[in-house]
Design a protein that fits this description.
This protein is of the alpha+beta class. It is built from three helices and six strands; from the N terminus they run ββββαβαβα. The protein starts with 7 loop residues before the first strand and ends with a helix. The N terminus is likely disordered.
């Protein structure tokens, strides 16, 4: 991923609330050099046991939308989603993975939230628009 040296990065955060429990969350950003999306995330079960983390790249918005809808249980869950500005995103030596994004989200605090919507129905059209924003914003 060719994002090093950039000071700011717009990231889409999505978190699933399944009957009052955080069940899954993920981060999505766009690599304009490679022209593909990067997604990383993790699932939790009701015992707070962390499942394996995941990360992958995707060139197609439609495939990415289908994947997000699937992992977020779009029919039965509520989601929190928003755009966050990760300033000074990562140093060249840091691994861009779920734990790193999650730690940085807490560190950068609410002042870096562009907008966050809590306890919403999954709306594929809205998520598609936000993925387009990630793709089109320049740094």
């Amino acid at each position: 991923m060719m994002m090093y040296g950039l000071q700011d990065r717009l990231v889409l955060y999505i978190e699933e609330d399944y009957y009052g429990k955080k069940d899954a969350s993920c981060y999505v950003l766009y690599d304009y050099v490679e022209r593909e999306y990067f997604i990383c995330g993790a699932r939790l079960d009701e015992r707070k046991t962390t499942y394996s983390k995941f990360h992958f790249y995707c060139k197609s918005i439609e495939s990415l939308l289908d994947y997000i809808a699937f992992i977020m249980n779009a029919r039965d869950s509520r989601i929190t989603y928003g755009l966050i500005n990760y300033n000074n995103i990562f140093k060249n030596t840091e691994l861009m993975d779920f734990d790193a994004f999650d730690k940085r989200r807490v560190e950068i605090n609410e002042n870096n939230e562009i907008a966050v919507y809590v306890n919403m129905d999954f709306n594929k059209k809205q998520i598609r628009r936000l993925l387009g924003v990630l793709r089109d914003v320049r740094y």
